[in-house]
Write a structure and sequence with these properties.
- The chain has no helices and 11 strands.
- With about 110 residues, it is mostly beta strands.
């Protein structure tokens, strides 16, 4: 699970391929993400879900191996077609360059 840095297979339960957004965020100039998907913030050894727009430089995000420190975050004001995905476990991993970010799926359900 998330707390043990284990990779666990999960089943995709829903996918919407044409999911338009008016803008998106760039984190560390490598992770391009819409504000729909909360990320796992690591603070004082605990995990909490945080909306992308609430993140700050210096925050630490859960990665597959440990944490990734936010060095930069910016809003990209361009229309983009995104994908919405739900999984049985409620999260998935996104590879961005050499980093693996853990992203919350199923965000339409309360967290």
């Amino acid at each position: 699970g998330l707390d043990k840095n284990e990779i666990v297979n999960t089943k995709v339960t829903k996918i919407v391929k044409k999911h338009p957004r008016a803008y998106y965020y760039s984190i560390n100039e490598e992770l391009m993400i819409s504000n729909d998907h909360p990320l796992y913030l690591v603070s004082n050894g605990t995990l909490s879900l945080v909306k992308v727009e609430e993140l700050k430089i210096g925050d630490k995000l859960k990665s597959m191996n440990n944490t990734i420190t936010i060095r930069s975050i910016s809003i990209i004001n361009e229309s983009i077609m995104t994908v919405y995905m739900e999984t049985e476990l409620g999260n998935f991993v996104v590879k961005a360059n050499e980093n693996y970010y853990v992203v919350k799926s199923n965000y339409s359900k309360r967290y």
